[in-house]
Design brief:
single chain, 343 residues, mainly alpha, disordered N terminus, disordered C terminus
Length: 343
């Protein structure tokens, strides 16, 4: 039973919610809040420097021969998701407090994950090299695209790219990322060798960002604006958003592009996920004030949800017979979604 629970509950997510509990009981105030905020800003610079070192430009460019697949992933990440988010806002304008709805729109502007997209593609016996290229390209472009796209989606929520916000994006996101790319030939192997220790460091930075964000909300009593009903509605909307993304990417892969099963898996997993590691630092820069915690809450919940659903989906793909790769790609219903439709 414990093993099954570990499959579905990411310990890191549990740790995040533990940090939220600490912020609720012992929020940073006064000088402590100033020090914690400065440390969180330093953590953002550190995170994006590491992203720059880790992401290989060669990996993002080497798969250009499959440019249609990579464009489909980028379309899903930066166009399909924002359209779905705007659709939810238009259909249900008053379903949630404005900060939570802004959080959903912000989530829709983020790039795909790297590690989990590749891992699930591997488990599902998909095209791993293409997944590496697609996920890397999404993250590299997301450093530039996501802040601008989020600002456009949220212009009514006061997240326009003022000079101050643009300056912070350049100094805290783009400059460290570019520095990491420049330094990659010299320190890339060292970072790879020490990835375990550095992994603890970058995850610790994210936990600090969460603590600062939720402390602001506690100090300003922002959490009194939401209740259990809001959390239930938010969870349902996030589940709907993920289901629509998975269903539409499957339709694009099968009906429009007629991809092989292996490439369909890439589009499913790289095109339906959103990066918590990139999103939290970006939110800290784009949004100020007590509502930051509410804005990042949808991202945290969506992150856990996508891990659970994609883990199940990957295992269902993995159970397909080997001869499937030789079947014609058109009109298939052999993937997990197709099996569900036949049931």
């Amino acid at each position: 039973m414990a093993g099954k629970l570990r499959r579905f509950l990411d310990p890191y997510i549990l740790l995040m919610f533990a940090v939220i509990a600490v912020a609720a009981l012992l929020p940073a105030r006064g000088q402590g809040a100033t020090i914690a905020g400065a440390a969180a800003d330093a953590g953002i610079v550190f995170l994006f420097f590491l992203y720059g070192v880790r992401l290989s430009p060669q990996a993002a460019l080497s798969g250009l021969k499959q440019w249609q697949l990579h464009l489909a992933v980028l379309f899903s990440t930066f166009m399909l998701f924002p359209l779905l988010g705007l659709g939810l806002q238009w259909i249900l304008p008053a379903a949630l407090p404005s900060a939570l709805m802004a959080g959903i729109l912000f989530l829709c502007a983020l790039p795909s994950t790297v590690q989990s997209s590749i891992a699930f593609t591997s488990i599902a016996r998909g095209n791993v090299p293409a997944a590496i290229c697609a996920a890397s390209a999404s993250n590299m472009l997301g450093v530039f695209i996501s802040p601008v796209l989020a600002s456009w989606l949220l212009h009514t929520q006061g997240a326009a790219l003022s000079f101050g916000v643009f300056r912070d994006i350049v100094l805290q996101l783009l400059a460290p990322f570019a520095a990491g790319q420049v330094m990659r030939p010299w320190i890339g192997q060292w970072v790879q060798r020490h990835r375990t220790v550095l992994g603890y460091a970058d995850r610790g930075s994210i936990l600090l960002i969460i603590y600062v964000a939720f402390s602001k909300g506690m100090v300003d009593n922002i959490w009194s604006q939401i209740d259990l009903a809001d959390l239930a509605i938010l969870s349902a909307l996030l589940a709907l958003l993920l289901a629509l993304a998975l269903t539409l990417t499957a339709m694009i892969a099968r009906r429009i592009m007629r991809l092989s099963v292996e490439d369909e898996i890439v589009l499913q997993f790289c095109g339906s996920k959103k990066s918590l590691a990139s999103g939290l630092p970006m939110a800290t820069i784009l949004f100020s004030g007590a509502q930051l915690g509410m804005i990042v809450l949808p991202l945290m919940l969506f992150h856990q949800l996508q891990l659970i659903v994609c883990a199940v989906l990957a295992r269902r793909y993995a159970r397909r017979p080997e001869p499937d790769r030789d079947r014609p790609a058109s009109g298939r219903a052999d993937g997990p979604l197709g099996q569900q439709q036949q049931a």
